[in-house]
Design brief:
Elements (H helix, E strand, L loop, with lengths): L1 E20 L8 E16 L4 E6 L12 H13 L5 E8 L9 H16 L6 H12 L5 H6 L2 E6 L5 E6 L8 E5 L5 H6 L7 H19 L5 H4 L6 H4 L4 H12 L4 E3 L6 E3 L13 E5 L8 E14 L1
Parallel strand pairs: 3-4
Antiparallel strand pairs: 1-2, 1-11, 2-4, 2-5, 5-6, 7-9, 7-10, 8-9
Helix pairs in contact: 1-2, 2-3
Length: 308
């Protein structure tokens, strides 16, 4: 027999945005927050951990202490010194999983910010970024997710991750093309060579600098500014449909890039009227998200089913 129990507890809700990292030449450094969100509500309890998921990942993601939001919360609670037994979590997921849109970064940022809020906000934003980047392994997605806007992120020795957030130009209008198939960051990184030609490194250095100017001040330069020689061509064989989509869009003057490790494609300038990506792609016309992770006080009504 299935029994349903409902508990209402003081909680916080955080809204975390999807993100696109690299943006062409800014490998592992540049990122942009997008107006597509997961919403996560959490409370600390004395009961066993419970996780409820709606939307992306429902029926697929784990719903115990191994859930990524819970793991990020526990890591943050450990750093704060809180020994809470249980976590009640409710997730409404809209960010596609394993598509190069920062779904894991969104989960980590959600967990870090919720744990901090639920224990009195003892950590600063730089502390939250440091913990989130440590959990993710690099800061290029967690930085825009946490801070919003167009971010430049870097590792600063023993201080960990640091980042600055810039205001994207209003004429930079991101469009996402999300394929039905998934991609995996580990495979995408495995496709990269251990070294690259000096000329290619110099090329990307110039394009990355230009992209900062183009995305914040002069979108007319975005097409040239999104040229890349460090990672996209090396990964093309692993995601041929995505590489072909970038080629198609750039052939008609659209500033298109692989989003993060792929396989989604991000266009930073408008698609031509009537452009048809094909039935295997979903198109999302979005905006640059400038607020990052947004917290609000909440109540959690968590209906949990268990067999007897």
């Amino acid at each position: 027999m299935l029994t349903v129990t409902t508990a209402v507890t003081n909680a916080y809700t955080v809204r975390v945005p999807a993100t696109s990292a690299n943006l062409g030449p800014g490998f592992d450094a540049l990122g942009l927050a997008l107006s597509l969100y997961d919403e996560v509500t959490a409370a600390l309890t004395d009961e066993p951990t419970r996780v409820h998921i709606e939307g992306e990942g429902a029926g697929e993601l784990l719903t115990d202490d191994s859930h990524l939001v819970v793991k990020a919360m526990r890591e943050t609670l450990s750093e704060i010194g809180d020994k809470t037994v249980g976590i009640t979590l409710s997730c409404v997921n809209r960010i596609p999983q394993a598509r190069g849109l920062g779904s894991s970064s969104a989960a980590i940022v959600a967990g870090v910010t919720l744990a901090n809020a639920l224990t009195g906000s003892r950590l600063s934003r730089p502390d939250e970024l440091r913990i989130a980047a440590r959990l993710e392994g690099h800061p290029d997605n967690v930085a825009p997710c946490l801070l919003g806007g167009f971010t430049i992120a870097w590792m600063s020795g023993g201080a960990g991750a640091r980042a600055v957030s810039l205001q994207p130009h209003p004429h930079a209008r991101p469009t996402l093309l999300v394929p039905t198939n998934r991609g995996w960051t580990e495979q995408a990184r495995a496709a990269l060579p251990p070294t690259v030609p000096y000329a290619d490194a110099a090329f990307n250095s110039g394009r990355s600098a230009l992209l900062v100017h183009a995305l914040t001040a002069d979108p007319e330069l975005l097409f040239e500014a999104t040229e890349d020689r460090l990672h996209q061509d090396y990964r093309a064989a692993a995601m041929p449909a995505s590489a072909e989509m970038v080629r198609r869009l750039r052939s008609v003057g659209v500033a298109a890039v692989i989003s993060g490790a792929g396989p989604s494609v991000l266009a930073l300038t408008s698609l031509p009227s009537g452009f048809d990506p094909g039935r295997r792609w979903l198109t999302h016309s979005l905006a640059a998200e400038t607020s990052g992770a947004v917290l609000s006080a909440s109540n959690i009504s968590n209906a949990v089913g268990h067999a007897e």
